[in-house]
Design goal:
The structure holds three protein chains of three kinds. Chain B is α+β, with helices and mostly antiparallel strands. Helix content of chain B is about 40%, strand content about 20%. Chain B folds into three domains: about 300 residues, no CATH class; about 110 residues, no CATH class; about 55 residues, Arc Repressor Mutant, subunit A (Orthogonal Bundle). Classes of the chains: A mainly alpha, B alpha+beta, C alpha/beta. The complex binds magnesium ion and zinc ion.
């Protein structure tokens, strides 16, 4: 029995923009426990005073100078688009503003 | 919908608490994380590359100039500059955001804990700045098929990513209580001050009408002595006047709901320029689980103290200092200077004086006639179609006696109507003061013979009576005479 | 098997033959294209083969040589590129339906470097979708088969690159390694796989799975070939903020040093905690590994046991970090700017079209990891999950650093088991994850590691993993190359002949 409900998985799927099937909901609900177990295992580890690691060599202050580089030709920009119009990417109607 | 209260009713019962979140587009040469140009108004999708289009595999590299600009803003707002700071991903889906996350900052902003002071009606309000952080802008969406070009009713939308990735600085205040009935003015004054500070730094053109400065206005109400209420967040309020109106409207709306015993929903609202009203957007519970986490594609930043001090040393004169200097130079009293600031006319007057006008004249035009015109048109003073150079020229013509005030106002009509510079308008409309003394003397003679009783009074020493004759002469010359000159001729003749 | 065939030669030999005019880049490239045509119907290592492009580059090389131009050390040597690396003008899908038909308008930095090195690109190789998997069974375009036994997986995610090299369809290939995706396929196909130090090879143009772990690297038949390719692609890239701005370790020279067969004075560590967890490992794998260790000792290496207690937490750490980053990295596939769009029939809103597109475009493992990552990052959990994992990562890194105070490199089997049969582990994700048990700690640390073939277990190849300190890639190549001197032939040369498909 999984600890995470189908409803929770459905909410996650909505957040992740996945129109999942009922079968997938069930499968994912069971498999999410991997995350919970991982979390439980790591929770036991004492990390007091430990700094986080994100990269092999700690990188600091990596910047580029404010000098323009060529953009892509517009044809190349639009070429990959599933649907374009008026030199823009066309999308179907948007429900409402978010954020 | 409950009927709105008047603003006055509302602030008698409730205390507003303000909060302001301002987004400012930096005018760096290139975008935040790629080398694409940032020119405003370019052809759609011509300033995009693999990075800002979020093509598979592309990676960001932070723009040093944008980081410096943000630190400068932080310093100008009296913030502490972080010794260790990093970018974070704010995850949510939206079509104008190519990666479907915004690279922003979360728990470690570049600048924190600042403040700005603004003066409203003689009282100083200290606005606490919670944070100043650096992020990136989104693309622009054109809504097609709806009646108004708005999102509602549109059948499809078209996206242009030129703006996507332009560096954006977000400045967030702490809640501002204690402004009472002046909440709208304080909100406006803060926004104007922020804009002036950023402009003085030269890091953004802060043009609200082009969206390079955008405001979100948070507002809640509470009864005196009670805890703060639930706040609403009105998005994209894009002029100083609208900031004021949005606050005013939310105060009226929320107070009516509270009076009726209803609950205020914590929600995002949209501001409508045309009506000055706000309307609800998507409710918070659905919208916000941004799943922030540290951006693994970017290195952390540790601005060195030397770097920060170098930037501090390079800060220009800030608006407050500048205002003090200009007030002295223009010989204005505190009240007068306050009016200038409130009218957002400091820069206009400064430019007018630089263009050759005397300070008194410049102040008089911008605060008087031109403010009145702006009010009538529902526009900002800066939005009027007359430049400081043109006002200086106008004042110059008055100083030379070529225009009197009445004619000058007609010249303004012409300038605002797009007929050209004051000199052109005066010439085209025939609005010069009649300086031909022969013609004036003839008109005076005519007025004297038409008003013998008045003439006798003046001869008898009652100089005040000259006004009647002056009026007659002005009428006869269609206002194109200089009143002072006419008066002198009359008095000379009736000695 | 005849060793006279071009396709049996190492990249180093081929390069030399081209340079010295004993063959031409065109005939070499043709030989490999012919081999692809002959056997890839059976192996299915390639998603796209670029006959014309590869031959065009080869012709340029031959012309340049005719003009007497000085060319790079691998000029004219063909290469296969994992389909997760972006190639301008060549389809790039990351083995996902969501990118089917997408033609990138730009090259990854490592592809630019391959082109600058004048290496003909044969095509794009198959993989687990978005590099998520250890068997290549999660490719949206069908699994690649192991050339040693076509009923078995070639490892993953880079099964296509490993199988292409193992089946001699390419002398060299590019892989990417997030949790073992170069080394594990190398081990199970009898090829050599190198995962360089994170940050020493640009990720620009590498389609992101887990940004803080992904590392591109070489796939080859032996250490020297891999090292030569490593040097072609590595080095600082200003377009990748996580790229290390420091000189690249001299790995080709290290491989040549190792080729002397002398490891006197080299200290190798075996990880105590790996040995304790050995019940997961197949006996044949353990036997082949132990035989390899004996060989290393004969070459003069000193073996010490070291303790890395935090390695126990590597798998759970990885399964909090990788899906979290992946869920965010894969958000851009929404059917707006490129790739698949589904459900745009006038009845669905954009939000629905995005969801339908992603549902139709992503395979089950990708969706699963997106959901896992979304969960790990969602409201209130990020500190307990992702944040905690980053702290434990530090402990793992400290274990490595402590170990490298005592030894020059660490050794282990590359994988606990050899190539398994198709379908054997797809039912239980955890069984699949075990394939990466020994490879994942290195990714969390960021250091380099290679997998070198060391023998067979029940007829299937076994790999030895050599792990080095950050920016100490050279020692891994030296040890691997030294091991190779103990073998009469490369393991790949002993593979059974492939039935032509
Ligand atoms: Mg923001
Ligand atoms: Zn760009």
């Amino acid at each position: 029995m999984s600890t995470i409900s189908r409803e929770e998985v459905a909410h996650l799927a909505r957040l992740a923009r996945l129109e999942v099937t009922d079968d997938e909901l069930d499968a994912f609900a069971g498999q999410l426990d991997v995350i919970l177990e991982s979390m439980k295992t790591l929770a036991e580890v004492n990390t007091d005073g430990v700094q986080p690691t994100s990269h092999a060599v700690p990188l600091v202050n990596v910047f580029r100078e404010d000098r323009p580089q060529p953009s892509l030709p517009r044809d190349a920009v639009l070429a990959g688009g599933p649907d374009t119009a008026e030199d823009r990417f066309r999308v179907p109607r948007i429900l409402d503003e978010e954020a | 919908m409950t009927k709105l209260n008047t603003f006055e009713q509302a602030v008698e019962t409730y205390e507003p608490v303000l909060g302001l979140e301002t987004h400012i587009e930096l005018d760096t040469n290139t975008k935040m994380f790629c080398g694409c140009a940032t020119a405003f108004g370019a052809e759609p999708n011509t300033q995009v590359c693999p990075v800002c289009l979020a093509l598979p595999g592309a990676l960001p590299v932070a723009n040093r100039a944008a980081v410096e600009a943000t630190i400068k803003i932080g310093l100008a707002l009296n913030c502490r500059i972080a010794e260790w700071t990093r970018f974070a991903r704010k995850n949510y889906f939206y079509p104008d955001m190519p990666k479907n996350f915004q690279t922003s900052q979360y728990e470690e902003p570049l600048c924190e804990d600042g403040h700005v002071e603004v003066l409203v009606e003689g009282k100083t309000y200290r606005i606490e700045i919670e944070r100043v952080h650096l992020e990136e802008d989104t693309g622009k969406t054109l809504h097609v098929g709806g009646a108004t070009g708005r999102i509602h009713g549109a059948t499809e939308s078209l996206v242009d990513y030129n703006r996507a990735g332009i560096p954006l600085v977000e400045i967030v205040t702490r809640p501002v209580p204690g402004t009472g009935a002046l909440a709208p003015e304080v909100a406006r004054a803060y926004t104007a001050e922020l804009r002036d500070i950023v402009r003085s730094l030269g890091v953004s053109d802060v043009r609200m009408e082009q969206g390079s400065l955008r405001c979100d206005v948070n507002l809640s109400l509470n009864r005196p002595g009670e805890p703060w209420g639930t706040r609403t967040e009105t998005k994209n309020v894009n002029s100083l006047r609208s900031v004021e109106r949005a606050v005013r409207y939310e105060v009226r709306r929320q107070s009516a709901l509270l009076d009726a015993g209803e609950r205020i929903l914590q929600e995002t609202r949209h501001f409508h320029e045309a009506t000055g009203e706000t309307s609800p957007g998507r409710s918070k519970e659905e919208a916000t689980d941004y799943r922030y986490f540290p951006e693994p594609d970017l290195a952390v930043m540790e601005p060195s103290r030397e770097w920060v001090e170098e930037l501090r040393a390079g800060l220009p004169e800030l608006p407050r200092k500048r205002r003090e200097r200009l007030q002295a130079a223009w010989s204005l009293g505190d009240k007068e200077m306050q009016s200038v600031v409130n009218a957002d006319a400091v820069g206009l007057i400064e430019a007018t004086v630089e263009a050759g006008a005397g300070a008194a004249g410049a102040v008089k035009w911008w605060l008087g006639e031109l403010s009145r015109r702006a009010n009538e048109a529902g526009e900002e003073l800066t939005g009027l179609a007359i430049s400081p150079e043109q006002v200086a020229q106008l004042q110059g013509m008055v100083d030379d006696g070529r225009l009197n005030d009445k004619l000058a106002r007609q010249v303004i009509d012409g300038v605002l109507a797009g007929e050209g510079d004051p000199a052109d308008v005066a010439a085209k409309r025939g609005l010069e003061v009649v300086s031909d003394t022969g013609a004036l003397e003839a008109a005076v003679d005519e007025a004297i013979s038409a008003n013998p009783a008045v003439a006798d009074k003046i001869r008898g020493g009652t100089h005040a009576a000259a006004g009647v004759l002056i009026g007659a002469v002005m009428k006869a010359t269609k206002g194109q005479a200089d009143a002072g000159t006419v008066r002198q001729i009359i008095l000379d003749k009736l000695k | 098997m005849s060793a006279d065939r071009t396709i049996d030669q190492t990249a180093a030999h081929i390069a030399e033959a081209i340079r010295e005019g004993r063959t031409t880049a065109v005939s070499v490239t043709r030989a490999f294209l012919d081999r692809i045509d002959a056997v890839d119907g059976t192996i299915r290592a390639f998603l796209h083969v670029d006959h014309e492009g590869a031959l065009a580059t080869a012709r340029e090389v031959d012309e340049a040589i005719a003009r007497g131009e000085e060319l790079g050390p691998l000029a004219g040597v063909p290469i296969a590129v994992k389909d997760v690396v972006v190639t301008k003008g060549l389809p790039t899908t990351a083995a996902s339906k969501i990118l089917e038909g997408w033609i990138p308008p730009y090259d990854a930095t490592i592809v630019e470097r391959i082109k600058a090195a004048r290496m003909p690109i044969l095509g794009k190789t198959n993989m687990d979708e978005f590099a998520m998997g250890s068997s290549t069974e999660y490719s949206a375009f069908g699994a690649t088969r192991n050339p040693w036994d076509t009923g078995r997986i070639p490892g993953g995610s880079g099964g296509g690159s490993a199988a292409a090299v193992a089946a001699k369809m390419a002398p060299l290939a590019i892989g990417t390694d997030t949790g073992g995706s170069i080394r594990q396929p190398g081990a199970v196909t009898g090829t050599f796989g190198g995962k360089p130090t994170y940050g020493s090879n640009s990720r620009y143009g590498l389609i992101a799975f887990s940004s803080s772990l992904d590392t591109p690297g070489p796939v080859a038949r032996n250490a020297l070939d891999a090292a030569m390719l490593h040097e072609v692609i590595s080095g600082h890239d200003p377009r990748d903020s996580t790229s290390i701005d420091a000189p690249v370790p001299q790995v080709a020279a290290a491989a040549r040093t190792g080729g002397s067969g002398d490891l006197a004075g080299v200290k190798l560590g075996v990880v105590k905690e790996f040995a304790e967890g050995a019940e997961a490992a197949e006996p044949g794998v353990v036997a082949a590994y132990e035989a390899a260790v004996e060989q290393l000792v004969k070459l003069g290496a000193e073996i010490t046991e070291v303790s890395c207690p935090s390695f126990t937490y590597a798998l759970p750490t990885y399964y909090l970090i990788a899906p979290s980053e992946a869920s965010s990295n894969l958000a851009r596939y929404d059917g707006v700017r490129y790739g698949l769009r589904a459900g745009d029939d006038g009845r669905h809103s954009l939000e629905e079209v995005m969801s339908l597109t992603r549902e139709a475009g992503f395979g089950p493992e990708v969706k699963r990891r997106i959901i896992l990552g979304t969960y790990a990052l969602s409201a209130g959990y990020v500190d307990a999950f992702y944040g905690k994992a980053q702290l434990v990562r530090t402990l793992i890194k400290q274990d490595f650093e402590k170990a490298f105070e005592q030894v020059d490199a660490l050794i282990s089997p590359t994988t606990p088991f050899t190539a398994f049969a198709f379908g054997e582990r797809t039912g239980d994700p955890y069984q699949m994850y075990l394939a990466d048990l020994y490879t994942i700690p290195t990714n969390l640390y960021g250091g380099p590691a290679v997998s070198v073939p060391v023998g067979l277990s029940e007829g299937m190849p076994v790999g030895l993993q050599v792990m080095g300190p950050v920016m100490g890639d050279d020692i891994t190549y030296r040890v691997a190359a030294a091991y190779e001197t103990t073998q009469d032939t490369l393991l790949a040369d002993t593979a059974p002949e492939i039935e032509k498909g």
